[in-house]
Write a structure and sequence with these properties.
With 101 residues, the chain is α+β, with helices and mostly antiparallel strands. Helices cover 32% and strands 10% of the residues. The chain has a two-stranded antiparallel sheet. The two termini are 19 Å apart.
Length: 101
């Protein structure tokens, strides 16, 4: 499951009518839930959920969330520069969960 929030805590957008009140959801994790990605619109505007997961899942086996995050940001930046000849703020957090079965 992927839940997106395109506006995390940026109070400047209030003037433009954008609210920064987060959507909060509680989700019961199952044994299949292993990866959490929190990212800014700099990622989500140029990448689909599937593209993001294809990148980060490659690093799950070695538990290298840092490398997954760096690759995700690098790919998002490349997509911005290639398709739009510009870039956006690109922020990402990758968390690998280790759930006991």
């Amino acid at each position: 499951m992927c839940i997106r929030d395109r506006y995390m805590g940026d109070s400047d957008g209030v003037k433009a009518g954008i609210i920064s009140t987060p959507d909060v959801q509680e989700i019961e994790l199952g044994v299949a839930d292993r990866i959490v990605v929190v990212a800014s619109d700099g990622v989500w505007e140029v990448m689909s959920d599937q593209e993001v997961m294809e990148i980060v899942k490659n690093y799950y086996g070695e538990r290298n969330a840092q490398a997954a995050c760096e690759e995700l940001v690098k790919v998002a930046d490349k997509k911005w520069r290639h398709s739009l000849n510009e870039t956006d703020d690109i922020t990402a957090i990758v968390i690998f969960l280790m759930i006991k079965e």
